[in-house]
Structure formats: C-alpha cells, structure tokens
C-alpha cells in the first residue's frame, strides 16, 4: 500500500500550478474541461485522496444556484420556480432568481452576474430575443454546470428538460378542428425559439392530417413573447383585418394567451361564436372567463424539479459528465 499523492505532487508531475490542480479537483468552471480531465485521470492513477484537514478545498461551493427566466409573474415560470426551490432547498442550496423580460442583453448581464457570484450552476430558459448562445457556450466549455428547461438551445450539449410542445399544440389545434373550425390562425413567440418551432410543428401537423391547407398569413410571431402588449394587439388585428379572416386562433404561450384574450375583450370579440381560442396556459384564471378557454397545461412544477435534480447531478459529480439526454414531459389539454 503506497501513500496517496498530494496536490503539490500532481501539480509538479503535470507541470501545472497547485491552484489550477486544486480548482480542477473541485470541478471549478474556471478550468477547461481538458485540464480537468487530465488532472482527474492522473489523480485517480496516483491514488490521490484529499487531506481531511483540507476538505474545504474540494468541497468549496457557494451552495447556490442561479435561475434565468423571462418573467417570474408568468404562471408557468412561477410554478417551475416552485419546483426548483422544492429540490434545491431540500438539498441545502439557495436559489438566486433573475428575469430577462425577454431581452437578450438582460440575459447576458444576468448570466455574467450570476457567474461572477460563483454560483455552483445555472438553470436557464432562453429569452425570446436569444438567438446567439455564445455567452452560454463559453461558460459551459469552462465547466460551469448548466441545465436548460422549456426554451432550450440546440448546440449546447447538456441536460435539457422540455414539455411535449408538438403534441400539446397538435391536441389544441385538433380540438378547434373538431369544434367545427377550419380557418385556424396561430400566434406564437419568436420563430427561432425551440418552443415556437415545436408548437408550430404540432399546429401544422393537425391541419395537414385533417386536410386543411396551411395559410402563411394566418401565422403570426411576436418577437417579445407577449411582453409587449402592442405587439400582440397588432398580430390579432392583422388577423381580424384579413379578407378571409380566421374563425379560431391557437395561441402558443401563457403570456400570449392572456394578451390575445385581452385584445379580443377590448374589441368585444371574446366570444367563441365570433372567434374561438385555444392556448397554452398554466393559469387558473382561464376558469373565470365566460366562456372559459381551452388550454394546454405544461407540468411546470415537475419540469423545475427534474431540471434541478439534473443540475445537482452535474454539480456534485466527482468526475466530468460527458453523456446527456433531453427529457420530454407530457402536456395535458384542459377542454373548458
């Protein structure tokens, strides 16, 4: 039985500074994945064991995680945050919540601020304006644990938790078709967002499978996801001013659904005999409308819990995690 090596021994053997080795052993995002892998593999090879009197070096964590969402007041995100906190708090982690208000610049600022505060990891749902994720790629490549939920980027390889947006949109559109509507419009968030792409796919699939042609003028995108009411009002009015105006609208977002209903109410058209609505919403407020609005419910609380569990797996892993999966949770159509 030989004595285990020290951090100084590893640093000397690999030609690295002791501080670099120390940070690599505690999986700091300041150290590149390649250096961490080199240090971890060598440490295992030479039987490295942390000094019990210096365990704080390896375990030095802030015990906090950062959350980046568009808006806490959004019913979906408030429920997701409840799920996040239920897991994080039970594991001894505090949660720092930031809002982007659908702004790309605000997202970058929030992420940089959280990273500078040495959070142990990030849970992120992209803003409606975010098309360039290089600011997140840089942190990810440096080893900061990141898990995406709801609105996810394609090119960053990490855990992603989403709802079955395509199926939810398909079922909502199919409900409108079965209710006798053939001229169904679609209002969604930014066209590049993952949720917009998936929900558009479900909408068009339902039309195609029922022999209804897709009308490009019936599809409207709101680049701020409903945060700017004038944007929603413009989209609704453009649809209503069409020569062959729609008799129903499938609205693909919580904030957008509320905004659309507000516009129709203002125009005295919030009546299914004039124009029917089906949307995405986690709000119980829809039950108060007369007539109540059919909507797709996302398991936001469960998504928040699962995203947090995956993030803590990354934070507490002894060796770098290199294999990830995307988890898709079922939605539910509430017919009202």
Automatic annotation (TrEMBL):
Q: Name one GO molecular function term.
A: DNA-binding transcription factor activity
Domain HTH lacI-type stretches: 5-59
CDD domains referenced in this protein's UniProt entry, alphabetically: HTH_LacI, PBP1_LacI_sugar_binding-like
* Alphabetic keyword roster: DNA-binding, Transcription, Transcription regulation
- Name the domain of life: Bacteria
Q: Output the PANTHER family linked to this UniProt entry.
A: HTH-TYPE TRANSCRIPTIONAL REGULATOR GALS, LACI-RELATED TRANSCRIPTIONAL REPRESSOR
Identify this protein by name: Transcriptional regulator, LacI family
Q: Which organism is it from?
A: Pedobacter hartonius
